[in-house]
Amino acid sequence: MKNLLTRSLSSLFIVAFIMGGLFFNSLSNYFLFLSILVLGLNEFYSFVKTANYKPNIIIGVFIAASIYTISYFVALKVWSFHAFIWIIPLFSILLIIELYRKKEQPIVNLAVSVLGILYLALPLSLIHFMVIHSDATSGSLDITTQLLNKQAMYFNAFVIIGYFMIQWTSDTGAYLAGVTMGKHRLFERISPKKSWEGAIGGFVAALGVAFLVHTIFPQLKLENWIVISIIINVFGVYGDLLESLFKRSVSVKDSGNIIPGHGGILDRFDSTLLGLPIVFFYLQII
User: Fold this and answer.
1) How far is CA 45 from CA 94, 226, 283, in A?
2) Is the pLDDT of residue 136 over 70?
3) Sign (positive or negative) of CA dihedral 247, 242, 10, 30
4) Exposure class string for 171-186: b at 16+ Cβ within 10 A, else e
5) Average pLDDT of the chain to the nearest whole number
6) Between residues 216 and 150, which one has the greater pLDDT?
7) Distance between CA 155 and CA 133 in Å, rounded?
8) pLDDT category, 253, cuts 50, 70, 90?
9) For residue range 151-203, what is the model confidence (pLDDT) as tens digits?
């Protein structure tokens, strides 16, 4: 009961933190997910170090934050897509620095450094392209373009807000169904506690809230929100299992302890990191 209370209070704080960043403008959205990126990547590098790997934490975080920042200004059309060429020398620097670090297993060190960047920076960078639009009907005039006196861009985070509403409902449904009815293991080799009953509970809960999300955000059709809820559930489960695989491979239980009752940033956002890119892909199709 105490753990459930702690978990619930932490969840309320997370909801307030996320929604606070999403409801204002692209600048608050930028700093919201930048903090998640930096904290999450630091967690990733910290727990892989327990297996005696030596990722380049400083350069890795710098490259990830740079990719994320470049994506922000490209989405705002302040910079063109050509700005992404700056990623090339950044990765070259990462390779060159490894020559001077004199660490064992340099190939593995480089591999985990790059994996962390790809695992967090790429999914979170896509958010900019999902909340910033050139159409005035898409939201309010964005403060950053006003400050920079550039082409008017508009901010509307309805897709991401709807995404998290579905994701959080799915997680809650899966947790409650798993605790009360979970008997059949979903993927015991990777995550002994996850059950089919929990997965089904999360799936049903997410489908239910998709109807509510559609009434709040009718910019997308109901069938689109239903498809998004299915994507969130399927790829969210795999995202959760993937992070469990990472932790199990280095004998770590939680990615961190920054969120009471949940563990670390990655423990809270692991489902999002795999599900979000697929939702982005689906939105480009429709």
Assistant:
1) 15, 35, 31
2) no
3) positive
4) bbbbbbbbeeebeeeb
5) 87
6) 216
7) 6
8) confident
9) 778 888 899 999 999 998 998 888 888 888 877 788 778 887 788 888 888 88
CA dist., res. 275 & res. 163, Å (int): 10
> Contact at 8 Å (CB) between 185 and 157?
no
- Mention every residue, 6+ apart, whose C-beta is less than 8 A from residue 243: 255, 266, 267, 270, 273
Residue 1 has pLDDT above 60, yes or no: no
Burial letters 14-52, b for 16+ CB under 10 A, else e: beeebeebbeebbeebbebbbebbbbbbbbbbebbeeee
Q: What is the 3-state secondary structure (H, E, C) of the chain?
A: CHHHHHHHHHHHHHHHHHHHHHCCCHHHHHHHHHHHHHHHHHHHHHHHHCCCCCCCHHHHHHHHHHHHHHHHHHHCCCCCHHHHHHHHHHHHHHHHHHHHHCCCCHHHHHHHHHHHHHHHHHHHHHHHHHHEECCHHHCEECHHHHHHCCCCCEECCHHHHHHHHHHHHHHHHHHHHHHHHCCCEEECCCEEEEEHHHHHHHHHHHHHHHHHHHHHCCCCCHHHHHHHHHHHHHHHHHHHHHHHHHHHHCCCCCCCCCECCCECHHHHHHHHHHHHHHHHHHHHHC
Question: Is residue 85 predicted with pLDDT exceeding 60?
Answer: yes
Which tokens sit at 270?
A: 């692991």
Decide if pLDDT at 259 tops 70: no
79, amino acid identity: W
CA distance 249 to 267: 15
For the segment 86-91, the average pLDDT, to the nearest whole number, is 94
